[in-house]
């Protein structure tokens, strides 16, 4: 199979898949060596990047995926008449703690955040951003949590080694806050925010408090808390 035909078929497969597809899977379907697929993907990524096209080829969540350019997101949302899933500060803080400290138990997360996280963890599980990774070998055998491939895909990460440093995370968190339209009073509420002490604070102060708590959580590991909190 010549190189151009191989790239054309790979492009078709990625378009049809609609989700990140591993190199090994592509090689199996095409019945060609993995090296040939990797070469084709590298050339395709360079070609997409060199041209002013609306599609890019990116490596995310352990596979390759055709994705729309980030600067075109506003128009894509208009076409689909939908808003991206909202990640509130509690959700963002909690998933960040799990991402940087995984595997981690609920008592350890609550020790870092200082609030109950039951509702937040359930929401993250429903959105498939985190998963139950087993139980910790400790008294009570508490459940441990870790992030998923969907987490990597949503945040556009190749793997966990691609996680931003704390400074970059604070910028991401601030951008999320600025992008969100404040809810109209009496129209929409977010239950997971209700447990946050800072929910009634000023919008200007909220991002810095949120980022500070996330930075402290990652930079200052707590004493190991192996038991579930008292009910």
Account of the protein in words:
The longest helix is centred in the first third of the chain and has 17 residues, at 34-50. Helix 1 (3-17) packs across helix 3, helix 2 crosses helix 3 and helix 5 packs across helix 7 (118-126). This protein has 231 residues and is mostly helical. It contains 10 helices and 5 strands. The strands form 2 sheets. A 3-stranded antiparallel beta sheet has the order 3-5-4. The chain has helices at residues 3-17, 23-30, 34-50, 73-80, 89-101, 106-113, 118-126, 149-154, 166-179, 206-219, and strands spanning 55-60, 63-68, 104-105, 130-135, 143-147. The chain has 2 domains: 3-78, Arc Repressor Mutant, subunit A, CATH 1.10.10; 89-219, Arc Repressor Mutant, subunit A. It is globular.
Low-confidence stretches: 183-231
Q: Provide the spatial order of strands within the biggest beta sheet.
A: 3-5-4
Order of helices and strands: HHHEEHHEHHEEHHH
Please estimate the helix content. Answer: 40-55%
Inertia-based shape: globular
- Summed up, the helix count is 10
Rg, alpha carbons:
21 Å
Beta-strand portion reads: 5-15%
Number of domains: 2
CATH class of the largest domain: Mainly Alpha
Structural class: mainly alpha
Which CATH-level-2 architecture of the largest domain?
Orthogonal Bundle
CATH topology of the largest domain: Arc Repressor Mutant, subunit A
Q: The biggest beta sheet, please?
A: 3 strands, antiparallel
The overall strand count is 5
In CATH terms, the superfamily of the largest domain is Winged helix-like DNA-binding domain superfamily/Winged helix DNA-binding domain
Termini separation comes to 64 Å
Q: What does the average pLDDT come to?
A: 74
